[in-house]
Amino acid sequence: MSGHHDHAHSLADDLKVIETMMARRRALKWFAGAGTAAFVAGCGGSDGSSSSVSVVSSGTAAATPTPTATATATPTPTATATSSSTACIADPTETAGPYPGDGTNSASGSTSNVLTVNGIVRSDIRSSFISTSTVATGTLLTLTLTLVNVNATCAPLAGYAVYLWHCDRQGNYSLYTAAAESYLRGVQVTDANGQVTFTTIFPGCYDGRWPHMHFEVFSSQSNALSGRYAILTSQLAMPAAVASTVYADTTTYPSSTANLARVSLTNDNVFADNTTAQIAQQTPSFSGSVAAGYTATALIGIAR
Q1: Dihedral class, residue 256 (left if φ above 0, else alpha if ψ from -120 to 50, else beta)
Q2: C-alpha angle 191-195-200 in degrees, rounded to nearest 5
Q3: pLDDT digits 0-9 by tens, 287-301
Q4: Separation CA 242–CA 287 (nearest Å)
Q5: How far is residue 148's CA from residue 88's CA, in Å, rounded to a whole number?
Q6: CATH number at residue 93
Q7: Which of 15, 83, 185, 213 is 20 to 30 Å from the Cα of 114, by its Cα?
Q8: Residues 6 or more apart in contact with residue 36 via CB below 8 angstroms
Q9: How many domains, in total, are found in the chain?
Q10: Tally of CB atoms within 10 A around 86
């Protein structure tokens, strides 16, 4: 990405690490073993050893790795979802990357944990809430996620917490490559329908990765705010057609069109080994326009 040459260098490092991992279990093993500065060498953003980090110190979460769910990454077909005509499957575990800000990684000897900061529980995640009030600009997106139990005929999971984070329109992550900011991160708790809704922007596409969003699921808000005990860490893939339409605005998304042209779902280092069914569930359904903003929905399958 223009102006972020450490993107490419760090991506090369990522690929070397990721290519050694075994199919679906690669991210789980890597995530579970990363609790120090070495974790910053993961995937996402301008993920490099020279990244600048705005640190939120937390003595309660320390650098404790976040245990992930015992659910297998292999799709688990179940009965038809109660609110949908399609069957749900368990979402695969994916890497959190080096920029989760959830207490599982560190830089310069300090732990970055935005989950323990007042204000992280919010629906509109476009503004920073720690040291500045900067609002992230870009194409408006209202995203609704529905959590379901794949072992109980896709029944909705109420009272679960979802932590969502993603890069800004230029491919930078708050707290890290946008070090002064804390935007595009937030936690919501699922309602009786198993749903959470976030108001955000469409993420940019940075060099080497398909446009995406990160999320972690916790069994309760208290677990989420302790910055540990995630039962699922995964990612959402943005639809190709919508991405191309959004990125046509090169003033708002200056590098995304060129970066998107160099990557595909089949060679992306996170999504490439997923099944067709997994990719379909990980890709939100969109409606709307650049001018009016988009609404999107996605099903998140959890094996409980």
Answers
A1: alpha
A2: 120
A3: 999 999 999 999 999
A4: 9
A5: 8
A6: 2.60.130.10
A7: 15
A8: 63, 105, 106
A9: 1
A10: 12
